[in-house]
Amino acid sequence: MSRKYPKLPNGFGSIKKLSGKRTNPYAVYPPVTEFRLNGSPVTPKALAYVSSWIAGFGVLTAYHSGSYTPGQELPDHLEVKKQADLIQGIVSDFNAAKRTTSDSAPQKTFKEMYEEFYSWKFERDHSKTYSVSTISCMEAAFKRLSVLHNREFLSLRHEDLQRALDESPNRHASIEHMVSLLHQLYKYAIIYEYTREDYSKFIQINIPNDDESGIPFTDDELQLLWNHKDDPIIELMLIICYSGYRITAWKSITVNLEERYFFGGIKTKTSKNRIVPIHSGIYELVRRRQERDGCMLNTSVASYRQHLYSALEKYGIERHTPHDGRHTFSRLCEKYHVSENDRKRMLGHSFGSDITNAIYGHRAIEDLREEIEKIEICR
């Protein structure tokens, strides 16, 4: 039966038993100091390979005291109780020293933590490039959180973050970016062991989404969108324009390519359980997106919105929100005389006091397909 040793504290290092029959089966690693952008640690080079866990613990103890030299080990022949007492004593001393250092050191402000995170995300690693709009969005979100700038980062709690959002005079879309920044900042702080708690985890936006109102794309604008259908951002916008789903719904919608329909939605029961046939004009866009990305929306709603704004500006199209695609679908249904009841069904609208349609108005998918195919593609 293998012995159980105490869990080593964060920042102490690690001891891992390797597979196979080895003379020295325990690898001893110093504390992790580097992380990839996705948060996974980069395993450092082993300090030593030793015959037992206790020997490895001796290596780490000497490493932290600054006296380690290769070959230095804690003796294996100590009695088990003395080993356990010695290990526990060293771990306790390490934790106490770490707490003392932490308490006496100047605490980073929210602003200083952001600057460190910003450098880590945008300047230190060149394996990934970010658009100007992505960087500008984050910088703007930071400015909007000015009430937190001079607060000690470790003193902040959920209620502080939530209050900053609730008291913000900005629109829903801008507050979404503030939320995104807080999530990323706390992820960074946890990766680098500034904190163990993610106080941004349960923050929420407590104002109505003002993107629900909007202006549909004109036929001329739809023509321009079709001219750039190979752009993945425009590709999804076209799919929205010819299906009527909200942008947030694309995170969970089921796509049935074989039978050519979408299923699902958000908000109301009517909206969540609806079926919308995939219009023949966008079928190839949907199939391509599924095969390429494995999903319909592979980024956050806030990020997609900013990429859409940049793409529309690039192609000389007036600024529209993703929700304008839903309004466009409704406009096209009216223009091409799609049945009003079927338009409501595909948009997930309630029939209100129309009990007959609400209870008995179920429609076969082929009936809905016949209606949606009335819409002509602007190209």
The tally of structural domains comes to 3
Radius of gyration: 29 Å
Poorly predicted regions are 74-81, 351-361
- SSE order: EEEHHHHHHHHEEHEHHHHHH
- Give the structural class: mainly alpha
Supply the CATH class of the largest domain.
Answer: Mainly Alpha
The CA-CA distance between the termini, in Å, is 73 Å
Number of helices: 15
Task: Record the strand order, biggest sheet.
Answer: 1-2-3
Q: Assembly type of the shown chains?
A: single chain
- Give the overall shape, derived from the CA principal axes: elongated
| Helicity, as a percent range | 40-55%
CATH superfamily of the largest domain, by name, is Telomere resolvase
* Major sheet size, sense and barrel closure: 3 strands, antiparallel
Explain the layout of strands and helices.
Elements: E1 14-17, E2 26-29, E3 48-50, H1 53-65, H2 80-104, H3 110-124, H4 132-144, H5 158-166, H6 172-191, H7 219-227, H8 232-241, E4 254-256, E5 261-263, H9 269-272, E6 275-277, H10 283-293, H11 301-314, H12 324-335, H13 340-347, H14 355-360, H15 365-372
Antiparallel strand pairs: 1-2, 2-3, 4-5, 5-6
Q: What does this 3D model show about the protein?
A:
47% of the residues lie in helices and 5% in strands. By secondary structure, the chain is mainly alpha-helical. The chain has 3 domains: 14-104, no CATH class; 110-207, Orthogonal Bundle (DNA polymerase, domain 1); 212-372, Orthogonal Bundle (hpI Integrase, Chain A). The longest helix has 25 residues, at 80-104. It is elongated, with a radius of gyration of 29 Å. The model is unreliable at 74-81 and 351-361 (pLDDT under 50).
